[in-house]
Automatic annotation (TrEMBL):
GO MF annotations, alphabetized: kinase activity; protein-ribulosamine 3-kinase activity
SUPFAM superfamilies referenced in this protein's UniProt entry, alphabetically: Protein kinase-like (PK-like)
Catalytic activity: N(6)-D-ribulosyl-L-lysyl-[protein] + ATP = N(6)-(3-O-phospho-D-ribulosyl)-L-lysyl-[protein] + ADP + H(+)
EC number from the UniProt entry: 2.7.1.172
Alphabetical list of Pfam families matching this protein: Fructosamin_kin
The family this protein is said to belong to: Belongs to the fructosamine kinase family.
Originating organism: Rhodotorula graminis (strain WP1)
Acyltransferase in keyword set: no
Keyword Membrane: no
Keywords per UniProt: Kinase, Transferase
Protein name (Swiss-Prot/TrEMBL): protein-ribulosamine 3-kinase
Amino acid sequence: MSLPKHVLDLLEPLHDTSATFTRSGDLISASESTSARQRYLYKTAGSDSTQLVGEAESLRAINAACADVAPRLLGSGTDEQGRSWMLSEWHDLSAIPAAEQARLAELVAKMHLAPAPDGQRFGFSVPTCCGATQQENAEMDSWAGFYGERRIGDLARRIGDPELLRLAQEVRQRVIPELLGRLDVKPSILHGDLWSGNARFSNDRHAPITFDPSSYYGHSEADLGITRMFGGFAPAFYETYHSLVPRSEPVEQYEQRLQLYEAYHHLNHMLMFGRSYKSGAVRLLEALVRWAEEQGL
């Protein structure tokens, strides 16, 4: 399968003149006489390119913040047929060894601690997709406003379940102003879908790596919500991460904030996969409402 010129223009400068390039589906292999074969991932999308464009821009922002936490984006654009495309590194992946959990935390922390671009607000320049769900990323000055409207409120409306709509409204009115409105946080680039299936060990880099991001700029702790939904992150991950990125003040509300951030992903899974995920969303939202009642909110 031949390679488009825009792909060759990106790959040829990375290899010597003896290199040969072969393509099988989305995978491109570059072979040189003097080095091991290198592989790249080439994706295209036709009429609906939202997910691909969002992934490319996510990688671009993450690469700028921490070059080692995700595959390197080599380029993206639109081809002669009007199809969106992106070219990135391809990595041979395996499970993260327990001894590498702390290193993963260091990389995620470095990504979160990187300064955002000047003038960056909460949100992102393009929509991104968390799973199959297109996220509303229009930027806002307020983190509490963004998370309440663009995350919890948006998904509850799209699901349309009366019980969840009621609980989401209570959380937006009583919980989010207290938990998020008091935070003094600056926008950090987030992975956006940091579950264990999107964090593996790269046998090419010999280090942990994350992939399939659905990024936006938000509170760094928001990336930790889904890490608790499916497990797979050892205590060493959280200990190392918070040694570098301390829990936000007020620290005593950390657990409630993570419940709130995890709730979004339960809502998203209900939107994608149906009512089997409703109980998890209800459990977390009800716990937050009870907490608000205990606080007299």
